[in-house]
């Protein structure tokens, strides 16, 4: 999904190819999928419902969400929503923080590369 949550909520996808990855190799890759978008969180029930609709449409087995503490909370809510809808989609949250400020996590992705 492109542009963070916007892509998930509005079903904006892109096929990642070798040529696409080669353009961003050794550049960190933040810009490759335009990870920053609006909304910045799944704060409202309609956001979660739109995400569930997209997940169901694509019959996703899993969804990996990489981000800060707020994104990890969103991944927990989304996981519970998937279970409630009996989708079988596994949602995995991976902590990423330049400040390494995620509780109970000793080191996050991105902390040592700033």
Write the layout of secondary structure elements.
Elements: H1 5-9, H2 18-24, H3 45-58, E1 62-67, H4 69-84, E2 90-95
Parallel strand pairs: 1-2
Summed up, what is this model?
It is built from four helices and two strands, in the order H-H-H-E-H-E. The chain has a two-stranded parallel sheet.
The proportion of residues in beta strands is 5-15%
Count of individual beta strands: 2
First-last Cα distance: 25 Å
Strand-pairing-aware structural class? alpha+beta
Strand order of the largest sheet: 1-2
Main β sheet profile: 2 strands, parallel
Q: Rounded to an integer, what's the Rg over CA atoms? A: 15 Å
| DSSP helix fraction | 25-40%
Q: Low-confidence spans: pLDDT under 50, at least 5 residues? A: none
What does this protein structure show overall?
- There is one protein chain.
- Helices cover 37% and strands 11% of the residues.
- It has 114 residues and is α+β, with helices and mostly antiparallel strands.
- The protein has a two-stranded parallel sheet.
- Strand 1, helix 4 and strand 2 form a beta-alpha-beta unit.
- Helix 3 crosses helix 4.
- The mean pLDDT is 86.
Features:
114 residues; 4 helices; alpha+beta; 37% helix; 11% strand; 2 strands; two-stranded parallel sheet
């Amino acid at each position: 999904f492109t542009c963070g949550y916007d892509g998930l909520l509005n079903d904006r996808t892109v096929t990642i190819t070798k040529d696409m990855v080669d353009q961003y190799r050794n550049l960190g890759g933040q810009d490759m999928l335009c990870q920053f978008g609006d909304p910045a969180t799944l704060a409202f029930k309609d956001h979660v419902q739109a995400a569930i609709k997209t997940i169901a449409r694509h019959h996703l087995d899993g969804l990996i969400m990489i981000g800060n503490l707020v994104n990890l909370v969103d991944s927990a809510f989304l996981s519970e929503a998937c279970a409630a809808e009996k989708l079988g989609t596994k949602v995995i949250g991976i902590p990423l923080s330049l400040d390494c400020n995620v509780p109970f996590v000793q080191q996050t992705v991105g902390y040592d590369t700033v």
